[in-house]
Amino acid sequence: MGLDLLDTPVRLTWDFPDDATCQASTCLPAIADSIADGGVFFVTLQGSPLLHPAIEEVLELLGGGCQLLISCRGSAKELERLKQLPLAGCQILLDVSDFIDNNHGVATDRLHAVVVALRQLAVKPVVTLTPLRNNLSNIPELLRFCSEHQIAKLKLPNAHIGDSFQGYLTADLPRWQDLEDFRKIWLDFMENPCQLPTLEIHDLFLWEIMTPGQQQSRGEYGGCQAGNSLSHVDIKGVVHPCAAWPQALGKLPDQSLEDIWSGSERMVVREQISKVAAGCHGCRDLDICFGGCRGLAFHLNRSGEERDLMCSGPR
Amino acid sequence: MNNPLRSPDIVWRVEKRRQAEVLKALEAGEDVDDSGTVILLQSGMMHQLNLVGGLIWQQCDGQQTLAAIAAELAREFSVEQEEVESDVDEFVTDLKERGWLING
Lengths: 315, 104
Prior knowledge:
The complex is a heterodimer. Chain A is of the alpha/beta class. Helix content of chain A is 34%, strand content 15%. Chain A has twelve helices and twelve strands. Chain A has helices spanning 20-24, 28-37, 55-63, 76-84, 108-120, 139-148, 176-191, 204-210, 257-261, 264-274, 286-289, 294-300; strands spanning 11-16, 42-47, 67-72, 91-95, 100-101, 105-106, 126-128, 153-156, 198-201, 230-233, 238-240, 250-251. In chain A, the strands form two sheets. Chain A has a ten-stranded mixed beta sheet with strand order 9-8-7-4-3-2-1-10-11-12. Chain A has a two-stranded antiparallel sheet with strand order 5-6. The longest helix of chain A is centred in the middle third of the chain and has 16 residues, at 176-191. The two termini of chain A are 26 Å apart. The mean pLDDT of chain A is 89. Helix content of chain B is 49%, strand content 22%. Chain B contains four helices and five strands. In chain B, the strands form two sheets. Chain B has a three-stranded antiparallel beta sheet with strand order 2-3-4. A two-stranded antiparallel ribbon of chain B has the order 1-5. In chain B, β3 and β4 form a beta hairpin. The termini of chain B are close together.
């Protein structure tokens, strides 16, 4: 049975950019209240939420009913803030993008120091990296780091682009050609692999390379959940179908999540998703990937007839 | 006790708007077997239960016997308890095998 249209999202990302917009935003507690009222199960505070002055109030408002995942970029200020916050039940996502340089690889010494500091706070971080063109080749080195440091999970989410691409340039996003290069790097790595952490890979084509022969494990995947079980909220409370779909559906706290989810804009998005992308017709694997990341594909791959950016073409 | 109890590892909620729509469709004589009214998440995977399954699920608090759950379901749908007992039993057995329900 496929997943029907839900009353409100189940998983939601909420962006906290590290800039003046974030610091100046005063309605965060009201937005948090709206999210909690919406019955969302999992809320990921991404960007630099620990640097926001209202973070403690936000955690208190959301912590009662939602499971919280909090992004941390490993800065000294964030580590200091973590000491002061009530984090029971929260999962810390250590975003390692600042520790990776295309020329020098993973800054393992600096990253080691952060992992040690987090462990001293009794935090067992999930390591997270948004795969981009310039860091795909560093994934094996990052996996070796995770193995050496007994990191239980590595998460590779899709790029969140929001309304303004949030600092990612379109050119940063990996395409299928990059994935072909990565496939060779991955095969080399697998000749001498390490103990792998649990992998959470959002892009289906990257997942396919990194977890070969595991198609059954996605047997219940029913396709893109943007605007259904997934949602994304920006720092001003503007609600999007997901972090990779730059379209406003409504605004918290002016509207409730339930009202936004019953609105016509959301229904239009679900209608778009229900149609098979033109570039996917006739593909034998369509019932495995269901078109992949429809948000990125719809907005950035019109010449590829809206196929997932990392898909090389119908099979 | 062997009363069915929802696994604490599962998060779930009733889709109230959806449930109201399904009840309306049922009154209109439509087939609602494939329409979800309760969603649950187990090990990161999302599942949904239809109207009957969702009503049984909500009763599985570890306090209700299978007979009591069947009686409540029969009352809800204005049928005899005997008509739903085997359905309840089958559903609960299936969910126990999946680990979604445990013995309360």
